[in-house]
Amino acid sequence: MALKWIKLGAVFGIFLLCFPFHFMYEWFPNALFSLFFPVNESVFEHLKMMFTSIIFYGVIDYLLLRFFRQKKDDFLVGLFLSACASIPIFLIIYLPFYYLIGENMFLNLSCLFITVLISQVISYFVLKSPNFNKLNMVSLFGLILVYIIFGFLTYYPPINDLFFDLVHEKYGINTYAI
After folding, report:
1. For 58, 69, 107, 133, which has the most beta carbons within 10 A of its beta carbon?
2. Is 96 within the bounds of a domain?
3. pLDDT given for residue 175 in this prediction
4. Pairwise CA distance, residues 155 & 55, whole Å
5. What secondary structure does DSSP assign to the chain, as a single string?
6. For the chain, what is the domain count?
């Protein structure tokens, strides 16, 4: 199977993972899950969900690359770059529409799908490019750092629209309204 088909499958796999991941913290509320899954309905928490879906699907992606004997030397670099790039890409696509027309499920899902598609294009080109494998360890530490930042911002969110849950009128994981 060619790399482009593996990456196309990843787009749909990541997109589908977002649905159960959206409710994972609600189903299993605990400190560990609060780092990976949304704890409220803010834009930031949905970015965390998308990032986590890309990372978790990375395991399947790696196994497929290995099974179909595709180049995987730069896998962690591609995974890190595609996951990190998904955050600003989503915000650039989503926020203008959100501020113009407000909350809309079709808009949310369309922006999510487009973002995942672009992130997998980035991953595709990293895997097709010359060897970056010296950056694999840096990418692993980068992933850990991103989750530390996610955890901090979940428990200590700034007072900002990106972190405000309009449904429950609160910030972060706090049970009180601000």
Report:
1. 58
2. yes
3. 52
4. 21
5. --HHHHHHHHHHHHHHHHHHHHHHHHHS-SHHHHHHS-SSSSHHHHHHHHHHHHHHHHHHHHHHHHHTT---TTHHHHHHHHHHHHHHHHHHHHHHHHHHH---HHHHHHHHHHHHHHHHHHHHHHHHSSP-GGGHHHHHHHHHHHHHHHHHHHHS--SSGGGEETTTTEETT-SS--
6. 1
pLDDT along the chain (178 residues), means of 10: 91 97 94 93 94 96 91 88 97 93 89 97 90 84 96 93 89 65
> What is the DSSP track for 135-159?
GHHHHHHHHHHHHHHHHHHHHS--S
Residue 178 domain flag: no
Closest CA to 150 of 71, 3, 35: 35
pLDDT in the model for residue 102: 81
Residue range(s) defining the domain that contains residue 70: 3-171
- Tracing tokens 């299993």 back to the chain, one arrives at 28
- At residue 120, the pLDDT reads 96
Which residue is listed with tokens 């060897």?
A: 131
- The predicted structure's pLDDT at residue 72: 77
Residue pair 87/119 in contact (Cβ under 8 Å)? The answer is: no
Tokens of 99: 């501020």
